[in-house]
Amino acid sequence: MNSQELMDLLEQLHDKYNRVDFIEHDPVSVPHRFTGQEDREISGFLAATIAWGNRKAIVKSAVRMMEYLDNSPYDFTVNASHAELSTLAGYVHRTFNGMDLTHFILALRRFYTLHGGLGGFFQQQWRATGDMRTVLSRFRAEFFAFDHPTRCEKHLSSIDKGAACKRLNMYLRWMVRRDDRGVDFGLWPDIPMSALYLPIDVHAGNMGRALGLLVRRQNDWKAVEEITASLREFDAGDPVRFDFSLFGAGIDGYLKES
């Protein structure tokens, strides 16, 4: 497949999957349940946090998580009493349990108290550094800058340890990307879409290799940089829109056909 043929395939799949029909069965459907920016920021972050494994199970667990937060994630985050926080103990999604959720809520509370929210922190850090890699590093450091069980740290990937940070990059796609397709929210206009990195997991990595976008075998941060650089050759201003294309290539069975 030459460069033009690859571009045509990426565009075709992007157009097919970056549309409102995509929302229902994807974790992005969780923040779409809300209208307020703070509710979308928090619900999106928590949904992304548990986004590994089967998509249907992820969505089901994330919706149940919102029920634990009285379907008012921002109000619960900033106002829940000790007694109300204790009701989170019964939540579990795979290895993410009620203790993790409680301390994630407390960490988020700090962000809304000290930084004006998640969007406030990410945008301020981008303005200060102009480097999303540094922003990701600072975000994790700030997120855990309070007393918390060590076990919570495994649920937020560390770019400083070379992790691909798939769920954080997916969340940033939701919050930063802006177009007229209706999937991503574009809530944080200070961050340019060109600054984003592709969310990469086993499926996206395999698809990227099949399409000649990625050579590196490990799905780590170096692979994220490599595949994002490849996609910037096709759209420097919005490379991560091709996340839809890689997802679509998998759904359409490209690997089986190639």
Write up what this structure looks like:
It is built from 13 helices and two strands, in the order αααααββαααααααα. The chain has 258 residues and is an all-alpha fold. Strands 1-2 form a two-stranded antiparallel ribbon. Helix 2 packs across helix 4, helix 2 packs antiparallel against helix 9 and helix 10 crosses helix 12. The radius of gyration is 18 Å and the shape is globular. The N and C termini lie close together (11 Å). The mean pLDDT is 95.
State the main characteristics.
258 residues, mainly alpha, two-stranded antiparallel sheet, 13 helices
Give the SSE layout.
Layout lengths: L2 H15 L19 H13 L5 H14 L4 H7 L2 H5 L5 E2 L2 E2 H17 L3 H12 L2 H12 L22 H11 L25 H9 L10 H12 L10 H9 L2 H4 L1
Antiparallel strand pairs: 1-2
Helix pairs in contact: 1-12, 2-4, 2-9, 7-8, 10-12
Q: Could you spell the SSE succession in H and E letters?
A: HHHHHEEHHHHHHHH
Residue ranges: pLDDT <50 for 5 or more in a row? none
Overall pLDDT metric: 95
Distance between the termini: 11 Å
Structural class, by secondary structure, is mainly alpha
Task: Please report the number of helical segments.
Answer: 13
Structure summary, number of beta strands: 2
β-strand percent reads under 5%
The major pleated sheet works out as: 2 strands, antiparallel
Mass-distribution shape: globular
**Strands of the biggest beta sheet: in what spatial order?**
1-2
The portion of residues assigned to helices is 40-55%
Characterize this entry briefly.
With 258 residues, this protein is mainly α. It has helices at residues 3-17, 37-49, 55-68, 73-79, 82-86, 98-114, 118-129, 132-143, 166-176, 202-210, 221-232, 243-251, 254-257, and strands spanning 92-93, 96-97. Helix 2 (37-49) crosses helix 4.
